[in-house]
Specification:
Elements: H1 8-18, H2 27-30, H3 36-44, H4 51-64, H5 67-79, H6 98-115, H7 126-129, H8 136-147, H9 154-161, H10 165-170, H11 177-202, H12 212-232, H13 236-247, H14 253-282
Helix pairs in contact: 1-5, 4-5, 5-6, 11-12, 11-14, 12-13, 12-14, 13-14
Amino acid sequence: MSDTSFTLEDAEANLEMFLRISGFADVPHLLQPLSTIQYRTMREGLADIERKTLLNGFIKAFVEGSRKRAFALSEELTRRGIPPCFRQIEKTKTKFTLNQKLDLFLYDIRWIRSNHWRHIEQVRYQRYRDLFATHEQKFQNAAEFVFYHGKRPAWKIVSSLSLTEAQQWDCVWLRSAPISKRHAATLASGKQVRRSLDEELRLVRHTKTITGDAKRATLQRRHDLWVCSQMTKGSPTETAARYIQMTGDKITPDIAARQLTLVRNSLRNNETQTRAQSEQETL
């Protein structure tokens, strides 16, 4: 469903429709011409841009309010199979402006309709079904109705769209309360998990193959797999798929399962040591 190529003209034409939702930022201001360098970059297409560079460019554009550029980069990220949840948006801030919420809503919807286009069969209400319309004017009208100037809570939209848990995890804004709570719990536990993994890896002796860089790469990989496992309830197959989306690095379900076993053992050992230390201090 995603376009195989994307030009600046495409970005401007699409955004002019998407951002003409009443009550939001001034459209002529949003559609001011990009610089010559930016224009040439967009004209040449985004397909050859490195993943990390694309993600950094997207975040920069989102934070700086360059909505046209952020949207164009978001479309390319969607084309590459990188869902909104892995675009590092949450690292920018915890509270968003009304315009940013609209943009997050559009990123999520564009991902859902591109990667789960048959989900329309599960949507009960016609106005919500129109979010899957290929006619952009119909999509714009549906987006205006559904977002409702930011007055309609994300969880209500999720319910009306009948989004599955996996689809909600794909998103960054369209999430129900239970998924949002699980996500918050994962973020809260993440630092401790990283510390536990780091402490165990420090005990591994350095060799010609086990270098400091190798340890850091292992730490990052295991932490990322743990994060992905929290989104999939531990399924190795689904965790491996999430990990590929998250990092761009391929991993088999078998390797993911083995790595997750090591992570669980590490967390268990750390918990045992912490408990023993606490009991010793109370004596």
